[in-house]
Amino acid sequence: MARHEQQSKKRRSCRFCDNKETYIDYKDERRLSRFVSEQGKIIPKRITGNCAGHQRQLVQAIKRARHLALIPFVSESIR
Amino acid sequence: MSEAHRSYETTYIINASIEDSQIEATIARVAEAIERNGGTITATNRWGRKRMAYPIDKKNNGYYLNVEFEGPGQMIAQLERVYQLDENIIRFLTILLDKYALEARAKTAAETTAAAVPATENPGTEKTGEAGTSGRPVKGEKPQEPVSADKAEKKDSDSRAPLFPEDGR
C-alpha cells in the first residue's frame, strides 16, 4: 500500500501536455538536451513522464537535431 | 495536375572554412534552385557560423542556414539532388511543416514580437540574450529544475561560448 502511494506521488505529468504544446522543434537544442542523458542517449518516457505522443515527437526532433550536429550522438566527454 | 503546394523547411550546413563570398554564392544558388523548381521562399534564417556538436568531414564549424518555402512535393527530390551535388553543403535536412508546426511557428512569432516590445521599453539583461536567439523558438518560457543533462550541456557550451555572439543575423 505504502509503496503504491509513493509511486503515484512520483508519477510526473507530461511537460509538453502541461504547456499545451503541439509541436516540438528540432532547432531548440537547449530544450532537447534536457531529454537526453549525459552520454547523449534519449531518456525514456518512463523516467521523464512524457506521454506517448509527445515522446514520439521528441524522439523525432532529437534525431533530426543529431543529424544536423545540433546535439551530439555521443557526448564528447565519453568519446 | 492539381499540385498541392505545401510548406517545407530546409536547414543546411555550409562549409564554414570557405570565403564569405563563396558562402553567399552557395546561398544564392540554393535560393535559385528553389525558385526554379516552382517554390516560393517565405523566410530565410541565418544562424551563422556555429560549432557543430561533432565533426563532419573533419570540420568542426559550419555555417547554418534555414529556409522556409512553399512548393509542390515533386520539387523536393530535385532540391535534394542540388544539395548533394553542391560540394560546399556538408549536411542538409528538409522537413514538411505540418499544420501543428505552422501553428507553433505562428505562436512563437507572436510571442517574440510581444516580448520584443516590453524589452525595448525597459532594457533589461535578458534583451541581449533574446537578440541572439531571435528567429528561433523562444526558450526559457518555463524555467525548470536543471537535469543532469543540463550540466553536460553547460560544460560543452563553455568551450563554444565565444562562438555564439557570431550567431547574430
Describe this structure in words.
- The complex is a heterodimer of chains A (79) and B (169).
- Chain A has 79 residues and is mostly helical.
- Chain A has helices at residues 2-10, 15-18, 29-33, 45-48, 52-67.
- Chain B is an alpha+beta fold.
- Chain B has two domains: 5-97, Ribosomal protein S6/Translation elongation factor EF1B (Alpha-Beta Plaits); 101-167, no CATH class.
- In chain B, strand 2 (40-56) and strand 3 form a beta hairpin.
- Chain B has helices spanning 20-36, 75-85, 99-121, 126-133, 148-160, and strands at 5-15, 40-56, 59-72, 89-96.
- Chain B is built from five helices and four strands; from the N terminus they run βαββαβααα.
- The chains are: A mainly alpha (79), B alpha+beta (169).
What descriptive keywords fit this protein?
heterodimer, A: 79 residues, mainly alpha, 30s Ribosomal Protein S18, 5 helices, 0% strand, B: 169 residues, alpha+beta, Alpha-Beta Plaits, four-stranded antiparallel sheet, 4 strands
Main CATH class of the largest domain in chain B? Alpha Beta
CATH topology of chain A: 30s Ribosomal Protein S18
* Largest sheet: number of strands, sense, barrel closure of chain B: 4 strands, antiparallel
User: What level of helicity do the residues of chain B show?
Assistant: 40-55%
Number of domains of chain A: 1
Beta-strand percent range of chain A: under 5%
CATH topology of the largest domain in chain B: Alpha-Beta Plaits
CATH superfamily of chain A: Ribosomal protein S18
Tell me the CATH superfamily of the largest domain in chain B: Ribosomal protein S6/Translation elongation factor EF1B
The proportion of strand residues of chain B reads 25-35%
> Structural class of the helix and strand makeup of chain B?
alpha+beta
Proper CATH architecture of the largest domain in chain B: 2-Layer Sandwich
SSE-based structural type of chain A: mainly alpha
Mean pLDDT across all residues of chain B, rounded? Answer: 76
